[in-house]
Amino acid sequence: MSKHHPHRSNSKPAGKPAGSSSKQPIDPLLQQRLTQLGQRRPAGAPLPPPAPTAAAAGRPAAVSSGARPAPGSQEAKLAAAAERAAAARAAKQGGAAVKTAPNAGRKAKPARASKVASVAISAATTLALAGLFARQDTGTTDSVILTSGTDPLAATGSTASTVAVASTTTVAGATPSSVAETSVAETTVTTATTVAAAPNTIADGTYAGVADQNRWGVVQVQAVFSGGQLSDVQILSYPDRDRRSIRINQYALPILIGDSVQSGSANINGVSGATYTSRSYVTSLQSAIDAAKQASGVTG
Amino acid sequence: MITMSSWSWYLTRSTGIVAAVLSVAALVWGLFFSARNTGTRLKPNWWLALHNWLGGLTLTFIGLHMLLSLTDSQTGLGLKDLFIPSGTVGWAIGWGVVSFWLFALVVLPSVARVRRRLPRKAWHVVHLLAIPATVLGMVHAFQIGSDAAASYFTRGLALLVGISVYPVSIRLIGIAETRRRRAAAA
Fold first, then answer.
1. CA-CA distance, A135 to A68, in Å (whole number)?
2. What string of DSSP letters covers B158-181?
3. Coil, strand, or helix at residue B21?
4. How far apart are the C-alpha atoms of A251 and B92, rounded to whole Å?
C-alpha cells in the first residue's frame, strides 16, 4: 500500500545542514533506492521532453515518441504490450485500425466476478439459514428443557425440569378458562398462611397474581413470601404458542425472577427482546404482592 | 405456525450471522493485503477491491439486520434503541449498536471518498476500529442468546476465530520483523 515518494525522500536529507549532529540515519533500503536513482540520471542533467499523449498521437506514448526505447527496458516492454493489445483488438474487430486505450491491459474494475459471487453467496446463505430456522421451529418436538437456575414452572408439579408444553398451563386455584381469557382475573391465594405474621409484615405463604394477557399469551406468577420477604416467584403460565416464545421466555423469565427476588418487589427493569413478557410479569407479580399485603393486613 | 413476525425473526438472525461472517472475511482480506501476503496469482488491486467490497457488504447486511429487527414486533425495539447504545434495552443489544457505529466509521469514509483527504496515520487509526467492531459484533451475537447455545453457533465461531489466526499471525510477525530491521539499521 505504501509507495515511496522519491521527491519527499530526497527533500528530507537536503533540508538539513550537512554534518548536523541531529541527522537521522538513512534506511538501507532507502539508501539503495537513492543510489539507483542517482545512477539512472546524472545530477543536473536536463529532464527528457514530455512525450505526446496517446490520445493525441493515436498510438502508445512510448512508441510515438521520437526516441526509440532501449531493448529490454521497461519502456520497450510497455510499448510491446501496447502493440500486442492493439493488434489483438484490431484482429477482433475485423482488422480495422483502432486507438489503444491508455490503460490497455489493466482491469478497470478488478474482482468483479468475486464481488458478484460474494453478494450471491451472502444472499443465498441468509435465505438458507432463515429456512433452516423455520424448519427447526416447525419440525422439532415441543418439549423444552429449562436450563436456567430457577425452574419457572416448578409450581405446576411437572417432573424434573422437562416441561411438556400445553396450550394452556393450569394451576391449582386458577381454572383454564380464567387463565386463557382474562387480564383482570381475580387474585387467588393458593396457600393458607402457616406462620403467624408479625405486625405489619406479610405472612408467609404463596400468593398468586392475576393472569395478564398480552398479544403473545398469558403470564401468571405466584409470589412466595417467607420471613416477611419475597423469597421466590413461580411461573404459573407463560406464552408458549410457538417454540420462539418458549425460547424467549426460557431466557427472560429466570432473569425477571432473579431481579424481583433481589429487589423484593415488582419494581424491576424489563428484559430486552421480551418486552411483552416483562410487562405482563410485572403486572402479575405486583398483583400477587398486593394480594399478599391485603391478606396479611399490611397497609402501604 | 410460522407467522410473519417469525420470518422477520429468522431473517434478523440469519442476516446477523452473515454480517458476522462477512466482517471476518473483510478483516482477513485486509490482513492478507497489509501483510503483503497476497501471492502472485492474484494482483494486489484484486485483494484491495474485494476487501473494500466485503467491508461495504458487511455494513449493508448490518443495516438489513437492524431493519428486520425493527420490523419484528416481538423484539419491542424502537428506532432509538437501534442507534443509541444504552442499558435500558440491555447491553446485549448495546454492543451491537456500538459495533454498527464503528463499522460505519470505517466503511463510510471509503464510500464517500473522504478517506483520501485524511492524513495517512489518522486513516490507519480509524481503519483499526474494524477489529473491535468485529469482536463487539461477536459479543453481541453471543449475549443476545438466540443462537449462542446452538452447536452450529459455537462451531461457526470457532471456525471464524481459526480462520483469523493465520492472517493475524503473519501480520504481527511482519510488524515485528520490520521493527527489528529498523532497529538493526539504526
1. 71
2. HHHHHHHHHHHHHHHHHHHHHHHH
3. helix
4. 13
* Burial (0-12, 13-18, 19+ Cβ within 10 Å), A180: middle
Question: Which tens digit of pLDDT belongs to each residue from A132-190?
Answer: 888 876 654 333 333 333 444 443 333 333 333 333 333 333 333 333 333 334 444 44
Identify which of A7, A17, A2 has the alpha carbon closest to the alpha carbon of residue A37.
A7
Q: How far apart (Å, rounded) are the C-alpha atoms in residues A237 and A108? A: 63
> Distance from A81 to chain B by nearest Cα, in Å?
18
State pLDDT tens for residues B82-135: 899 887 777 888 899 999 999 999 998 887 777 778 888 888 888 889 999 999
> What is the enclosing helix (H) or strand (E) of A218?
strand A217-226
Using an 8 Å CB-CB cutoff, list chain B residues near A25.
185-186
Question: How many Cβ atoms from other residues are within 10 Å of residue A250's Cβ?
Answer: 21
CB atoms within 10 A of CB A139: 8
> In this complex, is the C-beta atom of A216 within 8 Å of any C-beta atom belonging to chain B?
yes
| Whole-angstrom distance, CA of residue A239 vs CA of residue A242 | 8
- Asked if A122 lies within 8 A of B18 by C-beta distance, the reply is yes
Residue in chain A nearest B72 by alpha carbon: A273
Interchain proximity A133–B10, CB inside 8 Å: yes
C-alpha cell, B159: 471456525
CB contacts under 8 A, B 28-67 vs A, are: 33-34, 43, 45-50, 53-54, 57, 61
How many other C-beta atoms lie within 10 A of the C-beta of residue B11?
A: 23
How far is Cα A255 from Cα A239, in angstroms, rounded to an integer? 16
Burial zone of A112 (CB within 10 Å; 0-12 exposed, 13-18 middle, 19+ buried)? middle
| Out of A249-253, A271-275, B2-6, B90-94, least confident range | B2-6
